[in-house]
Amino acid sequence: MKNFRDKIVWITGASSGIGEELAYAFAREGARLVLSARNREKLEQVKANCLKSTSSCLVQPVDLSETGQLEAAVNAVLEKTGRIDVLINNAGRPQRSLGKETPLEIDRGIMEVNFFGPVALTKLVLPHMLKNGSGHIVVISSITGKFGVRMRTAYSASKHALQGYFESWRAELAAEPVKITIVSPGFIRTEISQKAVTKDGSPYQKMDEAQANGMAPATCAAKIVNAIKRERKDVLVGKKELIMVYIRRFIPALYHRMITKINS
User: Which domain holds residue 92?
Assistant: First the structure.
């Protein structure tokens, strides 16, 4: 089991949802936090809450769609912290639109944030972890990275891409002192569906029923922290919806009948 006290833990997408709850969970563990998202004001609010449990919390706003700016962000973090022990690639852009109605630029934008952003950030952080002789990279994927779901064509594709890319990277790093954990949450009770991008780029602004009945984000965060402690390679987090992963794997004919009936 890992002890996170005084470890530098960098969390992207830390202004809300799973990322925010991960910040609180790691603060209680005594970690020194780096919080990133686009909204500095919300990050400052999360920081204030974290400082009730930990003595160090740095706000470093980033926009993962602007990968050219990430090197400066990494340098700024390293200048202030000296190292990065755990990088949690949590930030992402959700989607609620049919593939046939979604313009390619929306698809590209989702892939830029959800796939290329985490890859670019990790490419910048990894050399420092290797130089320091330790590190842990965490990727927050989704069960839609295990199988496709209606209204999430580009989102699901981006999560499939994350899964394949970081699994390959894990194999390449097998002899190195850097661990990789891929987390695939199911329905977590956050505002992800409300913030989802639609076919015209506007927010969906609706709470999916499955999302509303999903696992509490604090519970999800606790399970993720425990998985990182145990250096789990691939972990599912959620409720009964996780069974679809196994149905897809072991009873594909049933999966293909069921998946067309899932609307949320």
Answer: 8-259
Instruction: Tell whether 71 is covered by a domain.
Output: yes
What is the C-alpha to C-alpha distance for residues 33 and 224, in angstroms, rounded to an integer?
A: 16
pTM for the model stands at 0.96
Q: Which residue has the tokens 């927010």?
A: 203
The active-site residue, picked from 155, 165, 246, 255, is 155
Asked if residue 110 lies in contact with residue 198, where contact means CB atoms within 8 angstroms, the answer is: no
The structural domain count of the chain equals: 1
In tens, the pLDDT along 15-31 reads 999 999 999 999 999 99
Q: How far apart are the first and last CA of the chain?
A: 37
HEC secondary structure over 62-83: CCCCCHHHHHHHHHHHHHHHCC
Catalytic, 24? Answer no
Residue 224: C-alpha distances to residues 25, 26, 141, 253, 256 (Å): 10, 10, 12, 31, 29
